[in-house]
Write a structure and sequence with these properties.
Blueprint: E1 5-9, E2 17-19, E3 34-38, H1 62-65, E4 93-95, H2 100-103, E5 110-114, H3 124-137, E6 142-147, H4 150-162, E7 166-172, H5 178-186, E8 190-194, H6 198-212, E9 215-216, H7 222-238, E10 246-250, H8 255-269, E11 278-284, H9 289-296, H10 308-320, H11 340-349, E12 353-357, H12 359-371, H13 378-392, E13 402-406, H14 414-421, H15 425-431, H16 453-463
Parallel strand pairs: 5-13, 6-7, 6-9, 7-8, 10-11, 10-13, 11-12
Antiparallel strand pairs: 1-2, 1-3, 4-5
The structure holds ligand F0G.
Residues 122, 124, 147-151, 219, 250-256, 331-332, 377, 379-380, 407-408 line the site of ligand F0G.
Length: 464
């Protein structure tokens, strides 16, 4: 199997390789990011995407039930006997006509891919099942990640559900929403809160994993991204194998955009789709590295000849000025995304754009998503807020077919939601006011009434 499947440096001018079972996940020649690479001509590739529809009839088989592994021919790095699934990826593409007014789109053209329905409540399970499978192939006993909360929740759930490995998670102290911290603790992960933020935790976890030989499940691990490709396979499935015009995704550590780009690029190479969608990545304004580099400094992948020096200088400047990421969308509160080069490559493949949105725009969009039936966490709503901007700018037209990815569940971060709707000015100020959120445009205030039947009935008649 191994010569058909390996890991390869993403730099075309380097092309250093690692064996499939190597867990260094960085190019041995240049230290850059690696892809999982396949010799497709020597692997069984289905003749068309419709091939996967037969898996719906085999749902008693856990591998065909999984929303990731029912597409296993498109991520064929593991023999089926190694695959670890907990039923991830049972997520659906939903037509979102109710939201069309808010973003000024024509009805029937907007879809939401709701990844909050995963076992741990976020898209991370798509990647974790793949990383976990790889970890099992190489015999790992301990797995670690740095996290803003969802990767760690996913790792904790996979470890506790399978009993295969011990979870060790690094989080920035105070930088994690309660729903996510609750998951790590409840599922028995060793939870290490370090005095710092995600970017600090990410550096430390790489050092620690290397020193102690612990398996790393952050998205620098290319097997994670193989699993996340399946989010786009399900989008295509939801559109009866038609390619949308746009896919919009929040950007944090930039694993998703990298995975989505690879998914579409490979499908086109395999002749399974005939064109690529455009990608839009949405940063929070308080954590906007990709936006600054791509849109303001004009940095491009250029077939691998991207200006590394300029990017390095950008990061040096961030450090020198002690600039820290800061946004209510804590999931994407990241200034040093590890997948930056892969994201630039995906943006080149898919003719991408990047935008930033404020915390106010994020929370208003989140409230609109909620009022129309789906619950998401703040970071997820960045995709809808980004769409609204791109519509205002005319970059996306009313009639294009658009998919926004909702990455995580509403219950991940109840504090942000309650503060937005709260009647308590102190709570609002503490959680949101200090981040520049002025007016919760769609606040749904609770009604305070005395414990009196007459007063309660009066309130109901008044408001409903
Ligand atoms: N949305 C949610 C809900 C997330 O948890 C994350 C990332 C993103 C979007 C950004 O995705 O990193 O692929 O660009 N959360 C990571 C974590 C960093 O640790 O849970 P990305």
């Amino acid at each position: 199997m191994s010569e058909r499947i390996y890991q390869r440096c993403i730099q075309p001018d380097c092309a250093g390789t690692l064996a499939v079972d190597d867990t260094r996940f960085l190019c041995p020649r240049c230290g850059g990011l690696v892809d999982v690479a396949y010799e497709w001509s020597r692997l069984p590739v289905p003749p068309s995407l419709r091939f996967f529809e037969q898996r719906w009839a085999e749902r008693q088989d856990p591998l065909s039930c999984s929303g990731v592994w029912r597409f296993r021919e498109l991520l064929p790095f593991a023999e089926p006997r190694w695959i670890m699934t907990i039923g991830e990826g049972q997520t659906i593409l939903q037509q979102a006509d109710g939201l069309c007014g808010y973003v000024n789109m024509n009805r029937g053209r907007l879809y939401l891919q709701y990844e909050g329905l995963n076992p741990s409540g976020s898209f991370k399970d798509n990647g974790m099942t793949a990383a976990f499978t790889h970890a099992r192939m190489v015999g790992a006993r301990r797995a670690a990640c740095a996290s803003t909360g969802n990767t760690s929740a996913s790792l904790a759930v996979f470890c506790s559900a399978t009993g295969l490995m011990r979870a060790i998670i690094f989080i920035g102290s105070g930088k994690i929403a309660y729903g996510k911290l609750a998951q790590a603790l409840d599922h028995g992960a060793l939870t290490i809160q370090i005095a710092g933020d995600f970017d600090d935790a990410m550096q430390r976890v790489q050092q620690v994993s290397q020193q102690l030989g612990i398996y790393l499940v952050n998205s620098i691990n290319p097997f994670r991204l193989e699993g996340q490709k399946s989010i786009m396979y399900r989008v295509l499935e939801g559109l009866r194998w038609e390619v949308p015009d746009w896919v919009i995704v929040p950007g944090g550590n930039l694993g998703n955009v990298s995975a989505f780009g690879k998914a579409f690029f490979e499908l086109q190479q395999l002749g399974l789709i005939s064109r690529l969608p455009r990608l839009a990545v949405i940063n929070a304004a308080g954590a906007n590295t990709l936006y600054q580099l791509y849109e303001e400094q004009g940095i491009r992948w250029r077939a691998g000849a991207w200006p590394r020096q300029q990017v390095q200088e950008f990061f040096q400047q961030l450090q020198a000025q002690h600039r820290r990421a800061s946004t209510i969308a804590s999931a994407i509160e990241i200034n040093q995304p590890v997948n930056l080069p892969k994201a630039l490559r995906a943006l080149e493949w898919c003719d991408g754009v990047v935008r930033e949105v404020t915390d106010q725009e994020i929370l208003d969009a989140k409230a609109q998503v909620g009022v129309h039936g789906l619950g998401c966490e703040p970071a997820s709503a960045a995709s809808v807020a980004g769409l609204k901007r791109l519509r205002q700018e005319g970059v996306i037209s009313k009639d294009e077919r658009v998919v926004c990815v909702l990455t995580g569940h509403q219950l991940k971060d109840p504090t942000a939601t309650v503060a937005y709707h709260s009647t308590d000015p102190q709570m609002f100020e503490e959680v949101l006011g200090k981040r520049g959120v002025r007016r919760p445009t769609f606040a749904n205030r609770s009604v305070q009434v005395p414990n009196d039947l007459g007063e309660i009935i009066k309130a109901i008649e008044l408001y409903a």
